[in-house]
Write a structure and sequence with these properties.
The protein is mostly beta strands. 4% of the residues lie in helices and 40% in strands. The chain folds into two domains: 192 residues, Jelly Rolls; 195 residues, Jelly Rolls, CATH 2.60.120.
Length: 434
């Protein structure tokens, strides 16, 4: 059978009915209605769908009080078969071949009446030692109004196969020992064990789907120096490589990184900035651009800030205390020296920058250093308004006992991510109107 459009009529359901459709109307995929008796509903003729020992499940949604009694279901002949029966005080028994094998009392039942779910489910006992405990049963009851629950878990012999009339809500089709409460739903299933959680979901209340109360995007772990994860023997490989790789592979981010550079060539930089592309910063000649750290990258128009991080390893070639290594990250509309081959008037150089100070002795080994984060950097856009030039500039400031000429540092990784910063009095995506 295939699942239909009735939620509680599942692939293993052999009979399912409700008061709204009529308790004799079968809403399962079998669509095989039963007959209406006196205070009962039945199917005669020894129909095979009822002649099941395990796995099987009998489930009822009823309204009852502590004085109600009666048969809830019976498929019995000659003292054999299966039965569910209610006695006064809310006591429910599951019978196998004429003997009660499980019993449970409706919790918190009173004279005022409650909505009650009754569920009896059987399965093969995986730990059976013989015919006497071949089947495992769970008889449960939910008091929906009070939110209480109880169950009895037992083992017993298999239900004997019989030819009988299946009767709901009475002992006979004539209405003897009829259930004195009110039935709302009836369901019989075969071929699969129904756990208590399934009965609760189907008849008590659907569990609400989980909702996310936190940001769904993945944040890359950027360890600080104090975390110690970059220390020797704390990580299987340089921690800066893990972080840079994480940013590079962050496919779940709302907006991807703009650049994520990991440098295989990590020259020992000093105050002379050993590169044939070194250039003093035009409006602050104490700082020098290093040409190998000059990039042009596209930037979405919805972005107005850059979040930039750099991994720096700082050390001395002597035994003096470290000097300050001042590092700036610039966002520029063009390189400060102009653009080779540019046609037309060269645009006025526009730039924004943020600065960090590195004062550390990380040693000159292969695992030293730490990540540093620049404050959010405004974006200076290129002549096409769809990208920016970014660059690193350096200065060494005397802060130790030795000369600045002995201070060294390495740039091991450099990342930039897009960001949006609300500007007071303006629109965040437009960078403000004021």
């Amino acid at each position: 059978m295939a699942q239909g459009d009735e939620p509680n009529a599942k692939d293993d359901t052999r009979f399912y009915s409700t008061t709204s459709a009529g308790l004799e109307v079968d809403l399962s995929q079998l669509a095989d209605d039963i007959s209406v008796g006196t205070n009962s509903f039945f199917e005669s003729g020894a129909q095979a769908r009822w002649d099941v020992s395990h796995p099987a499940a009998w489930e009822l949604d009823v309204t009852m009080n502590d004085t109600d009694t009666g048969y809830l279901f019976t498929y019995e002949s000659g003292g054999s078969g299966a039965r569910l029966q209610l006695t006064t005080g809310g006591v429910i028994d599951a019978y196998v071949d004429g003997s009660s094998v499980a019993q449970v009392t409706v919790p918190d039942i009173d004279a005022g009446g409650d909505n009650v779910i009754i569920s009896w489910s059987t399965e093969a006992n995986p730990y059976t030692t013989g015919a006497g405990n071949a089947v495992r049963s769970e008889l449960r009851v939910f008091n929906v109004d009070d939110g209480s629950f109880d169950q009895d878990i037992v083992t017993h012999a298999a239900i004997t196969s019989v030819s009988a009339t299946a009767i709901w809500l009475a002992r006979s089709t004539g209405g003897s020992l009829a259930f004195s409460g009110t039935a709302n739903e009836l369901r019989f299933s075969a071929g699969r064990f129904h756990p208590a959680a399934e009965a609760r979901e189907d008849f008590v209340a659907n569990t609400s789907a989980p909702t996310l109360t936190m940001e769904t995007r993945r944040e890359i772990n950027v360890p600080t120096r104090d975390a110690g994860t970059g220390d020797d023997n704390q990580f299987a490989g340089p921690i800066y490589m893990s972080t840079a790789a994480g940013i590079e592979q962050a496919d779940l981010r709302q907006a991807s990184h703009i650049w994520a550079e990991r440098y295989r060539d990590q020259p020992d930089l000093d105050e002379t900035i050993q590169t044939n592309r070194a250039l003093a910063v035009p409006d602050d000649t104490d700082f020098t651009f290093a040409g190998q750290y000059l990039l042009h990258r596209p930037v979405s128009k919805s972005v107005n800030r850059l979040l930039v991080r750099v991994h720096v390893q700082s050390f001395r070639t002597d035994i003096a205390t470290p000097d300050n290594v001042l590092i700036r990250c610039y966002s520029m509309n063009r390189p400060s020296s102009g653009i080779e081959g540019f046609v037309g008037p060269v645009p006025v150089w526009t730039r924004f920058f943020r600065e960090i100070t590195v004062n550390a002795d990380d040693g000159s080994g292969t695992t030293g250093g730490a990540w540093y984060t620049f404050d959010h950097i405004e974006i200076a856009r290129d002549e096409n308004d769809d990208g920016t030039w970014v660059a690193l500039a350096f200065e060494v400031e005397d802060d130790g006992g030795g000369g600045t000429e002995d201070q060294r540092w390495r740039i091991r990784a450099w990342t930039g991510e897009p960001g949006v910063e609300d500007v007071p009095g303006g629109l965040p995506l437009a960078g403000g109107l004021g």
